[in-house]
Amino acid sequence: MSFTLLIHGGAGNITPAIMNAQQEAEYTEGLKEALDKGYEVLAGGGSALDAVVAAISTMEDNPLFNAGRGSVFTKKGLNEMDASLMNGKDLAAGAVAGVRNIKNPIVLTREVMLHSGHVMLSGSGATEFALSHGFELAPDEYFFNRSRYDQWLEIRDTNFTQLDHKGDNLKGAPLPNPGNKFGTVGAVACDAEGNLAAGTSTGGMTNKRFGRIGDSPVIGAGTYANNATCAISCTGHGEFFLRAVVAHDISCLMEYKNLSLQEACNVVVKDKLVKMGGEGGLIAVDAHNNYDFCFNSAGMYRGMRNSEGKEVVAYYGK
Ligand code: ASP
After folding, report:
1. Mean per-residue pLDDT for 39-64?
2. 260-285, pLDDT tens digit by residue?
3. Of the listed 4, 161, 184, 235, which one is catalytic?
């Protein structure tokens, strides 16, 4: 039986000019490691949901990516993380927003989905739930990352809010330190039974306002999965992805207008979002193992591994 796994590590101003050989090697290794972890689950007959959690938690543990351990710093110099997970088989979903000191927010989203009776928990309520379900809190030092801290120090006294992977800011003026690009992480999978799942995890944006929530934990915006259509995980300028309800819009174009996966992705990412000024991209798969990497930014850290023995790891534009 066929199965497919796709991952992303953020979209943005990712070009050969800003990457050296060592960085390329590190990203290749980080992406391959996550692909392998998720692939093992699928090859062993595991579910798309478990594969997505395995791939994302591997990237959350890797400081290279803006999620879990490598999360960026907020205006207050803290790490506040957002994540979500959705199962295409039954439309079950779990999400956490603005959580602190949780090593693997994506694992907590699965717990929320399965055992909270709710879809989304935020802040201290999510922490309380985590503690009562056996999660241990990691100290602030676990999330400390020199390059991300310096990235924040440069703009903390300004009103700039920097996308981790973007070389400029939300107002369009140049940032002091353009060219930093790490990224939000996500995974989508189609398992051997044709079930789909999607997940996304992020530290959000450097210098973001206390309590700011992006698209990543919002079901329908940053993440969506439905066996009848597709599984989607987004990355990019969250405010636009929220307003365009990107992930669900793609599903709707497939469901109501019979567009193919790729046609639907192109309409939303390369037309609608571009017209709004929303930069970013997404990964997508459908229940027939068709897949797409779709982005309107210069690049996107991304990877794919499937049961046909095909493997892709790439960063730059097509
Ligand atoms: N979409 C994320 C947010 O706005 C950022 C990203 O994808 O890098 O929080």
Report:
1. 97
2. 999 999 999 999 999 999 999 999 99
3. 184
Is residue 200 included in any domain, yes or no?
Answer: yes
pLDDT of residue 164: 62
Q: Could you give the CA distance from residue 277 to residue 273 in angstroms, rounded to a whole number? A: 6
Q: Are strands 162-163 and 291-295 parallel, antiparallel or unpaired?
A: unpaired
The answer to whether 108 and 128 have CB atoms below 8 angstroms apart is no
In a domain, 318, yes or no: no
d(CA 164, CA 300): 12
Specify if 204 maps to a domain.
yes
Ligand 1 centroid from CA 204, angstroms = 5
* Residue 15: exposure state from Cβ atoms within 10 A (0-12, 13-18, ≥19): middle
Q: Is pLDDT at 239 greater than 90 in this prediction?
A: yes
Q: Which helix (H) or strand (E) holds 199?
A: strand 196-202
- Please report which confidence band the pLDDT of residue 205 belongs to, taking 50, 70 and 90 as the band edges: confident
- Number of structural domains the chain divides into: 1
- As beta bridge partners, residue 86 has 93, 198
Active site residue 184: yes
For 307, the token pair is 């049961």
pLDDT for 180 beyond 70: no
Q: Is residue 317 part of a domain?
A: no
Measured distance CA(232)–CA(290) in Å, rounded: 12
Which pTM was predicted? 0.93
Pocket (CB within 6 angstroms of ligand 1): 10, 163-165, 183-184, 202, 204-205, 214-216, 235-236, 238
What CATH number is associated with residue 168? 3.60.20.30
